[in-house]
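Hi,

Apologies if this is the wrong queue. I'm a grad student, and the batch job for Gamma-interferon-inducible lysosomal thiol reductase from Peucedramus taeniatus produced an output file that my downstream script rejects. I'm not sure whether the problem is my script or the file. Here is the sequence I used:
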Amino acid sequence: MAPTVPLAVLALVALVAPGLGVAPGCDYPAHRWCSSPDVAVACQVGSRCPSLPRPAAAPVQLSLYYESLCPACREFLVLKLFPTWLLLPEEMLNITLVPYGNAQERNVSGKLDFQCQHGPEECLGNMMEACLMHEAKNFSTFFPVIFCLESGSSVTKNLEACLQIYAPEVDSGRISACVQGDTGVALMHHNAQVTEALEPPHQYVPWITINGKHTDELQAQAEASLLGLVCHLYQ
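Support response: The file is valid. Your script probably expects a header line. Output copied below for reference.
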């Protein structure tokens, strides 16, 4: 007894090859047309094979250039960026945080020194968050801590409490050593270089790039509805 051809394949034949004609270059029987991606392409039926694996889309790349004590930066990070990150699957959005903003880097007697828009405490906050990222490494570990710092009463005084809540496995002593040593300076120098290399140059903070690009329109869309923008761009 001949094998029964599934109804779905019969429907596929009717849709793709009216009159039982075969797609040019297709040397496979109808019941094999959806057996693999290569066969589906050869028989021109890829869009009609729902069981075939689809290539993964690249995540939307968002970079936030910000200052730790900037009110508008804190508002965007706390009210827009963090909730969007929580709502979306990991594969849809890739975030890079660059705490530096409108700071200025100077070489004073052979040592790098930083001046920040909101004073020395902001420079400390920028370096603390850079060191936190360096020590925690995993974005899903350090981002909730940064959210905690930026949403709290003090960015620079709540590190211990935020670590206890969101990342107790991260050693606060290592972060302090980073801040007080050469590593913190090197991290801030890197952030300075990355920020100064922006094209077009940043004019304000928060400064948002999407897939490596910044336009006034993208900035406005990100600030108005970041979730909608990411969902629109994710292919």
